Fold this protein.
Amino acid sequence: MSDDSRAMTEWVTAVRQELGLEDTVDADALVDKVLDLTADVAHGVSRPAAPVTAYLLGLAAGRADDLTVATNDFAGVISRLAEGWDADAERAVPANDQSQRG
């Protein structure tokens, strides 16, 4: 395990404990999902949008009945949006109106 991986594991474990989330999320799956999502957003939209998007994902998933399912579903939706993002064409088009997306 690399130093970065070890630091990430220790950090995520500590944050989950501090926030009382140790029984609600699988740390390994969470890290992989969020890193993939933020990479998609950073490359497809902008780097500063990545952490804000991860926060929004957390807010949306936290409102759902099943946190894991919601996280996976929402991350997939966001990644697909980021991969096809064209700021001029996509701006102000509601996410649920796929007919207006390129």
Summary: The CA atoms of residues 61 and 70 lie 5 Å apart. The mean pLDDT is 86. Residues 27-44 form the longest helix (18 residues).
